[in-house]
Each structure stands twice: as structure tokens, then as C-alpha cells.
Design goal:
heterodimer; A: 295 residues; alpha/beta; Rossmann fold; 4-stranded antiparallel sheet; 13 helices; globular; B: 461 residues; 2 domains; two-stranded antiparallel ribbon; 17 helices
Chain lengths: 295, 461
């Protein structure tokens, strides 16, 4: 566990400690700990079935973990224990927004309406929990205008402004992915969790996605946690990569470190357990031949 | 020119030949099918012996009908349909400009409804208007109100509720019991009935929060039956199957509608007639409907209404956006139930008598059918469906000439369910999403475009 010390961060937004999740006899996640630094893009990678989405579901409250502690610290210094909050409160209070691996749009609502639904809690308050709004109080009208402006802002960022009045189900796949991110951003999150945002995108769309994510981080300071298979996305934009295999962390560090970690290579190449040691030796040999770049 | 004429002529003769060929085939198939069923009939003669009766004439009629039918179908109907389809496809490019009527449809409809009683009185006289105002006007408006209330639960929030009539019953009995035990007036009890029904909506809502789809439907169905059985069996309070009678009438600013000296008719110097009360009730029902529509339209543009529709589309996504789905579902149940309660107390004041028989499952089914036929979520569509369904069954009663065709024992209103079924099948074949299948967006940036029904979901419970 030598790499743990190198990744300890001064100001973590998210701290996952000893997280375990058991489904019956299956240990989906086993004693998993990591930290995500504020303002960073943290990537969670690993082979299929490694438990990445389960980690996500624990963080966003869709699963209640069997063990462990998930702490979210906001900019204001307020701390939330996410494993104790119901799922909708995690978005509402702790300001964690997420997207889904299989896109979950409100396909019968227009693109604009999708973004307005995301501002539900803010608008609910402005409308006096519906009662004041029902009688046409001006406070709600003002808030409603502001919410449309915010939606317009994110539609422009996601380059969906021309399709604002079309049903969300009518958008092509890549645009739906962008819309889901825009929708999550409309909740005003401090931590944005993206579950495979680049899945099914062509190279051009995937490049646009990289730009969108970097723009989000630069303009709003939102920290991003993402699950991704597309290594071009992961290596290009992430500051910190955590690798998961069979529910356990096998590597944790900056993209370069992870890329050369023999355990990661073994996991991705699918080497037998007995052969892992051999692979590690081989890699070490190669690296020593190259002149010992290993720190 | 002659060339073209000859080709069309040859195409025509070819078609006729094909039609003749197919007609012969159809005849052969008919012969094969019916020779044993129709051509030969087993019968008993006077000595109880089994004999074969031969009915070649009848069989020939069958075959001729089939052959002629097939010939006409192939030679005329099919080319005509194909041609119509072709012209339609060619004309589809032209964008249809919305006419004055469809743009101002709701305004025209409201004006027509406001003018309906005076027009009817002018046409049929004061006594003659009774039937038209009461059976058609008020009856339809009650169902419109109920269906609009259910629309919030089923059409917007996507929660299938098969026990909606329970809230109707709660509203009706709230008014009936509270007015007969405590002598409270209709105007006090109308909001009370709404609130009580909303409370029952929440009470139903809690246990069914976790249920979806078929399971939700079953539990709500059971809830409707529970309410009805309580009304039947709690005889000390509800008088059981005898029902509550002699329910106080509504008053207009304290003016009663009766034959007394300070009654409405006497004050206005009009001849005494029950028609005035019915006309008053008509406007009352209309006002309640307008309130329902106004609130529904307003709510749809508010965060809660959008959350309902989002809930219908995808519940998990709703939760991921910080929407409390529990309160969202409960408010949908409560709001829908409240309008059911209003309709119920209005029903009680109109009938002057309530009994559990008025709140059977069939009523729930009828209301749900209206919502589905109208197009889930669309107020206009639902109002049209209510007029067609309820007005249609009332008109059946009027069709006395049917007795001359089917004999004096024929009672057309018994066939109303048949009409219901037929109407549903026809509408579902032609317009699977109901009369108005598209959805009006609640906000827009550039241009308001209706969302086609193929994108909206029906909800999953």
C-alpha cells in the first residue's frame, strides 16, 4: 500500500472509507477506500463487473452500503455522511448529481423541460411549495424566468440550444448523453458523478465531451467523478485514477502511474492469478532496462 | 393518346380478370367452409329420427355474397384505397395552418357551455329543458370533473388507479352525512369534502408507494371496494344499502330553490319549476369543472406538475435529481382525490340521495376509460371523450325507434357497455394514444411544439 500516501489530498471533497457492499453471498465491493480531491476529475476504472457502478450507487444513495463511510465535504466546510442520507437528499442537500450508464431521460418532456425538472427543489421553494405559485405570486414568475435562463446557459454549453423545444426522446444518442450531463449540472452540484459518459460516442463526440467536462470544471469548479472504459477520455482529462478489480482497489494514482502499474496491466490483459507475479517481474525487467524511470 | 387509353383499358381488364379469379377462389373457399355447416343441417323429424335437411339455396347465397364481396373488394375498394393513400402521401408535404376554430377551441367550448341552458330553455321550454340540462349537461360535467381529477393521477403522474370511485364516494358521503347530522350548508361542506377525500388519497397513497404497475392497480381496486363495503356495512352511520336520503339542496347566497315564499322562483317572479335548480346546478358544475381545469393547467406549469410528469417518465432519474418521489406521489394522489371529493359532494347535492350502489367498480372503469380514450394528460381530449361516452349512453335511452326494429322488449340502455367497448376498440385502433395523443410542453425557448405521443410514457405504476 505504498501508493496511498502519495494520493492523500489536502482538501478532499469525497472520502470513501472501508466501503463494502454485499449482495447475498456476493461481495461486490470489499473494503474499498479512496479520496477525490476538490476540483479534480477523478476516474474510476476497472474491467467489466469490477463493481464500479456499485460504488457509484453507494455514493449516490441508490444502494445502502453494508459497511463503510462515505463523507462529502462541501466548499462551505459542511460535511455529509452520504451512506446515511436517502437518495434524493444526496442531490438536494449534499449536492451530488449523477448520470446513468443507460441514459435515463424524461423522453416525453422537451429538452428544456428536462432541465427545468432538475431545478425542482429551487423552484418548489420559490413557488411557496406550490401554494403561492398557484395564485400567481410574482416570486415564482421571477424564479421561473431565472430557471429558464440557467437552462439556456447549460443548453448552450452542451450545444443543444437548437433542439430545446424538441422531445428529449427524439435526440440522437450523443446529444442525449450531453443532455443528461446538462441536466445534472442544473441541480447545481459540487460533485458530478458520471457513469460511462463516453459509452457509445464516436471519436468526435467523445472529444466534445472532454471539452465539456473540462469547461464544467474550469467554469464552475465542480469536482467530477467518472466511470469510464474509453481510455482516451480517462487518460486525457482525469487528474487521478482509481482502479477497481473484483471489488478491490488495485491501483490509485495519477494517470501515468496507473498506466504503468503492472497490476492494472494484468487486470486489463486478463492474466491468470498465478501469472501475475511473472508479469510484474517482466515489466520490472523492461523498466530497469529502460533506465529506471520508476520513482 | 390512343396508346395511353389502350394501356389504361388493358390495365382495367387485367384488374377485372384478377378480381374474377379471386372471386372464384373466394367462392370455392366459402363452399368448402360452409358445405357441411350450412348446406347440410341435421334435424329431428316428428318421430325423433335424425334426418339431413339439404339447404343448397342458402349455401348458394353465402357463396354468391362472398364472391360478389371479393370481386368488389379487389376491383374497386382496393384501388380506391391505394389511390387515396397516394394522394394523401403527396399532400402530406403541405403544412396545415391551424384554423380559427382549433386555435380558440377552449374559448368557444366554454362559451357554448355557458350558453347551453338558455338555448335549451328557448328551444324546449322551461319544463322540457329539464332532461337536457340534467341528464346531458350535469351528468357529463360530473364525469368531466371526475376524469380530469383522475387525469392528474393516471395521466400526469402515471399511477394507475382503479379505485378512483372511492374518493367520489368519500366526497358524496362527507356531504350527505355532515349535512344531515350537523346541518352544515353545501358551501361549507364542499371544501371539507375535498379535504377529506384528499386525506383518503394520502391514506391510500402511503401503502402503495412502493408498488408499481399491475400491483398498484390491484391495491387501488381493493381500496375502492373497501370503501364501498364500509359504506354498506357501517349501518349505524351510513344506513347501509338504504343510503342517505333527503340531503339538503344547495342555496344561491342563501336563496333556496323551493316553492316557499322566499324561494328563488318567488323572488324572481317566475313560475315554480324544478328546472331553475337544475340550471343553477349546471352552472355550479361548470364552475367546478373550470376550477379543476384551471388548477390542473396551473399545476402543470409549476415544479410539482413537472415532477409528476417526470415521475411518469422515469422515477429513478427523478430521485437522482433530488426530487422526493414519496411526497410527489402523495400530492398526486391527494390532488386527484380532492377533485373526486368535490365531484362527489356535488353528486350528493344533485341527487339528494346517496347509496353505495352509485360507487361500484364499474364507475371507476368508466372514468378510467374516459381518461384513456381522451388521451392521457389532455384536458380537451378527456372532455370530448366524456361527452362521447356519457352523452352517447344517454342518447341510447332516447333511441325509442330501436324498439320498432328489435321488438318492444328491447331496452337500448342495457347495451351501453357494448357501445363503450366498441368505442374503445375503434379509438384504440385508430388513435392508440386517445383523441388527443400529443402533449403540450409546459415551457419553451423558441417555439411551442406539441410532443408526439410516441415519446411520452404511460408510467409504470
Amino acid at each position: 500500500m505504498t501508493f496511498e500516501t502519495s494520493t492523500m489530498t489536502k482538501d478532499p471533497i469525497l472520502k470513501v472509507e472501508h466501503l463494502s457492499m454485499r449482495f447475498g453471498g456476493l461481495m461486490a465491493i470489499n473494503d474499498f477506500s479512496f479520496e477525490a480531491a476538490r476540483g479534480d476529475i477523478t476516474a474510476l476504472i476497472g474491467p467489466n463487473g469490477a463493481g464500479k457502478t456499485t460504488v457509484f450507487n453507494c455514493i449516490t444513495g441508490f444502494y445502502k452500503p453494508t459497511m463503510g463511510m462515505i463523507t462529502l465535504r462541501q466548499r462551505s466546510g459542511k460535511e455529509y455522511l452520504l451512506e446515511r442520507l436517502p437518495d434524493f437528499e444526496i442531490t438536494k442537500q449534499a449536492k451530488v448529481a449523477r448520470t446513468f450508464q443507460n441514459i435515463r431521460m424524461f423522453s416525453g418532456l422537451t429538452v428544456l423541460e428536462n432541465l427545468l425538472v432538475a431545478q425542482h427543489n429551487k423552484l418548489m421553494q420559490a413557488s411557496g411549495y406550490t401554494l403561492l405559485g398557484l395564485f400567481g405570486f410574482p416570486a415564482y414568475r421571477q424564479a421561473s424566468k431565472e430557471s429558464i435562463e440557467l437552462a439556456r446557459h447549460w443548453l448552450e454549453k452542451a450545444s443543444l440550444i437548437d433542439r430545446a423545444d424538441d422531445p428529449a426522446g427524439d435526440l440522437p444518442y450523443g446529444a442525449q448523453r450531453r443532455l443528461e450531463i446538462a441536466r445534472a449540472m442544473c441541480t447545481g452540484p459540487e460533485l458530478l458523478c458520471l457513469d460511462e459518459p463516453a459509452a457509445g460516442l464516436n471519436p468526435r463526440e467523445s472529444l466534445a465531451l472532454n471539452q465539456l467536462l473540462q469547461e464544467i470544471r474550469r467554469d464552475t469548479g465542480t469536482s467530477i467523478l467518472l466511470i469510464e472504459h474509453d481510455m482516451s477520455v480517462v487518460m486525457e482529462i482525469s487528474d487521478h485514477v482509481v482502479v477497481l478489480e473484483y471489488g478491490q482497489k488495485i491501483s490509485d494514482g495519477n494517470p501515468d502511474f496507473v498506466k504503468h502499474d503492472p497490476k492494472v496491466i494484468a487486470a486489463y490483459l486478463g492474466v491468470e492469478d498465478e501469472e501475475v507475479e511473472e508479469v510484474i517481474e517482466e515489466i520490472e525487467e523492461i523498466e530497469s532496462e529502460q533506465g529506471g524511470i520508476n520513482p | 393518346m390512343a396508346n395511353v387509353a389502350s394501356t389504361t383499358a388493358s390495365a382495367g381488364s387485367e384488374l377485372t380478370a384478377r378480381a374474377l379469379r379471386e372471386a372464384v377462389f373466394a367462392g370455392l373457399i366459402t363452399l368448402g367452409l360452409f358445405v357441411l355447416f350450412v348446406g347440410l343441417k341435421t334435424d329431428q323429424n316428428i318421430r325423433n329420427e335424425l334426418i339431413l335437411t339439404q339447404r343448397w339455396g342458402l349455401l348458394a347465397t353465402f357463396i354468391i355474397v362472398a364472391m360478389v364481396g371479393r370481386f368488389l373488394m379487389v376491383a374497386y375498394a382496393q384501388p380506391w384505397l391505394a389511390q387515396r393513400k397516394a394522394t394523401k402521401a403527396a399532400a402530406a408535404e403541405v403544412v396545415k395552418e391551424e384554423g380559427f376554430f382549433s386555435r380558440n377551441f377552449s374559448k368557444i367550448a366554454i362559451a357554448a357551455l355557458v350558453l347551453y341552458p338558455p338555448v335549451i330553455v328557448a328551444l324546449f321550454g322551461v319544463q322540457g329543458s329539464l332532461k337536457w340540462v340534467d341528464n346531458f349537461g350535469i351528468q357529463i360535467l360530473i364525469y368531466v370533473m371526475l376524469a380530469w381529477g383522475l387525469n392528474i393521477v393516471v395521466g400526469l403522474a402515471g399511477l394507475l388507479d382503479l379505485g378512483y370511485v372511492a374518493f367520489y364516494a368519500v366526497g358524496a358521503y362527507s356531504y350527505a352525512l355532515l349535512s344531515s347530522y350537523f346541518g352544515l350548508s353545501f358551501w361549507v361542506l364542499l371544501p371539507v369534502a375535498g379535504l377529506l377525500a384528499a386525506c383518503w388519497g394520502v391514506i391510500l397513497g402511503f401503502p402503495v408507494l412502493r408498488l408499481r404497475g399491475d400491483y398498484l392497480a390491484i391495491v387501488t381496486l381493493a381500496f375502492g371496494e373497501i370503501i364501498r363495503l364500509v359504506l354498506i356495512n357501517w349501518t349505524e352511520v351510513t344506513k347501509g344499502t338504504f343510503g342517505v336520503s333527503g340531503i339538503a339542496k344547495a342555496t344561491l347566497f342563501g336563496i333556496k330553490f323551493d316553492a316557499s315564499k322566499d324561494g328563488f322562483a318567488a323572488l324572481m317572479g317566475l313560475p315554480i319549476s324544478s328546472a331553475y335548480y337544475k340550471i343553477f346546478l349546471f352552472y355550479l358544475a361548470l364552475a367546478l369543472c373550470m376550477i379543476t381545469a384551471f388548477v390542473t393547467i396551473r399545476l402543470r406549469r409549476m415544479p410539482i406538475g413537472r415532477a409528476w410528469e417526470a415521475l411518469r417518465e422515469d422515477e429513478i432519474a427523478c430521485r437522482s435529481l433530488g426530487i422526493n418521489t414519496v411526497t410527489t406521489k402523495l400530492t398526486a394522489f391527494a390532488t386527484g382525490a380532492m377533485f373526486g371529493g368535490f365531484a362527489g359532494s356535488f353528486f350528493a347535492v344533485r341527487q339528494g340521495f346517496v347509496s353505495p350502489e352509485s360507487f361500484v367498480f364499474l364507475e371507476s372503469a368508466v372514468i378510467l376509460a374516459i381518461v384513456v380514450l381522451g388521451g392521457m394528460g389532455s384536458l380537451t381530449g378527456i372532455a370530448i371523450a366524456a361527452i362521447v361516452m356519457i352523452g352517447g349512453t344517454e342518447i341510447l335511452r332516447e333511441l325509442t325507434f330501436l324498439k320498432m326494429i328489435f321488438g318492444p322488449n328491447f331496452t337500448p340502455e342495457l347495451y351501453r357497455m357494448l357501445i363503450f367497448g366498441l368505442a374503445m376498440v375503434i379509438v384504440m385502433v385508430w388513435k392508440p394514444r386517445g383523441f388527443v395523443g400529443s402533449r403540450e410542453p409546459t415551457a419553451f425557448l423558441h417555439k411551442r411544439k406539441a410532443v408526439s405521443g410516441s415519446f411520452t410514457k404511460e408510467g409504470h405504476g
